[in-house]
Design goal:
Blueprint: E1 7-14, E2 17-25, H1 35-74, E3 78-83, E4 88-91, H2 94-99, H3 103-106, H4 120-133, E5 137-145, E6 151-162, E7 168-177, H5 179-184
Antiparallel strand pairs: 1-2, 3-4, 3-7, 5-6, 6-7
């Protein structure tokens, strides 16, 4: 019915998972398909399977990144990352809502730029423990200065931010605003 003299069907398979079928016919050519054509198509089908799997994996990564971005962007608490020297390289939008500084005013600045002078040595010591000893801290109460100079009280957490090899590349954590609770106490 198709007018083909011969055709070849090759499965598209990746790690025992059938992903489809590659079918080639000879409708435009008068020659019969040969074993060498089959070998070529098997190689092509393998490359198609790898490309399809890569595309699926990429879509999963994009979906995962979107979920994480959405969680961070919509979280009511401040989520942050510091680089290996203590400078902010990420803050979520909660920072501006709670502390008044826009992202551009915070990124690249050091955490100690946003605390009282008398707290600096304690914060540096704690930062070094997290960075050098891979210590994780939770529920440490501290203050961060609002853009207007007022103090906000936070329940702070921090943990080493590790690369794929387990090397510390900075700190990741959360600041939960407990200022209203402290006022009531």
């Amino acid at each position: 019915m198709m007018g083909a003299q011969s055709f070849i069907c090759v499965p598209i398979v990746f790690e025992s998972e059938s992903m489809g079928v590659l079918m080639v016919d000879n409708m435009r050519s008068n020659r019969h398909l040969r074993h060498s054509d089959l070998n070529l198509l098997i190689g092509v089908a393998t490359q198609i399977a790898i490309s399809m799997k890569n595309a699926q994996s990429y879509q999963k990564v994009l979906a995962s990144e979107e979920r994480i971005r959405s969680l961070s962007e919509n979280a009511p608490d401040i989520i942050y990352t510091l680089d290996i020297n203590g400078a902010f390289n990420y803050i979520n939008p909660a920072w501006e809502k709670i502390l008044g500084h826009c992202t551009e005013e915070v990124i690249g600045q050091y955490f100690i730029d946003f605390i009282k002078k008398e707290d600096i040595s304690n914060v540096i010591h704690l930062f070094k423990q997290i960075r050098n000893e891979k210590l994780t801290i939770t529920e440490r109460v501290g203050t961060i200065l609002h853009k207007d100079g007022s103090e906000r009280v936070f329940n702070m957490s921090g943990a080493p931010n590790l690369d794929l090899k387990g090397n510390v590349i900075g700190i990741v954590g959360i600041f939960k605003d407990i200022s209203e609770q402290k006022k009531l106490e």
